């Protein structure tokens, strides 16, 4: 399985790390030794809202060859949802069978047309913004709409990561990874 983890300037680092940690444990804990990922960006120089720097593996490369795409949120998503070049790049992920987002990352999936007619969630401060992109805004912490999974605010990123682990590799993998992370919630 190949995953694309999206990063962008002015994202929230914990949105990214929250899903990154449990998902990459699929490989490091030997549940899925062939789980591979790339950190993908639309630009070479990426830093979060506090100036934490990220070094993408690729930039401006098409995203259609991945099995999983995960998009964090953060301040930068508010302008990127209106950036035609960025959204055209995200749209290259159309063939990806499973797409996910945390927080306002759902605005980016929505702007790319992936949430049309679906239930989705985002940070509560962005519910109104999300309405234009999806069929129904949900207040649930994690919303599974089949080929799209969205999560609320920053702390739900770990929940999303563990949810995706269970969806990809099963409940036993999720429980073992959560135990190793000392994550006591959601059982």
Can you walk through the features of this model?
With 187 residues, this protein is an alpha/beta fold. It has one domain (2-180): 3-Layer(aba) Sandwich (Rossmann fold). It is built from seven helices and eleven strands. The protein has helices at 13-28, 75-80, 84-91, 105-111, 127-131, 156-169, 171-180, and strands at 2-7, 36-41, 46-47, 53-54, 58-59, 68-71, 98-102, 119-120, 136-137, 142-144, 148-151. The strands form three sheets. A seven-stranded mixed beta sheet has the order 5-2-1-6-7-11-10, sandwiched between helices. Strand 8, helix 5 (127-131) and strand 9 (136-137) form a beta-alpha-beta unit. The longest helix is centred in the first third of the chain and has 16 residues, at 13-28. The model has no long low-confidence stretch (mean pLDDT 96).
List the helices and strands and how they pair.
Elements: E1 2-7, H1 13-28, E2 36-41, E3 46-47, E4 53-54, E5 58-59, E6 68-71, H2 75-80, H3 84-91, E7 98-102, H4 105-111, E8 119-120, H5 127-131, E9 136-137, E10 142-144, E11 148-151, H6 156-169, H7 171-180
Parallel strand pairs: 1-2, 1-6, 2-5, 6-7, 7-11, 8-9
Antiparallel strand pairs: 3-4, 10-11
Helix pairs in contact: 1-6, 6-7
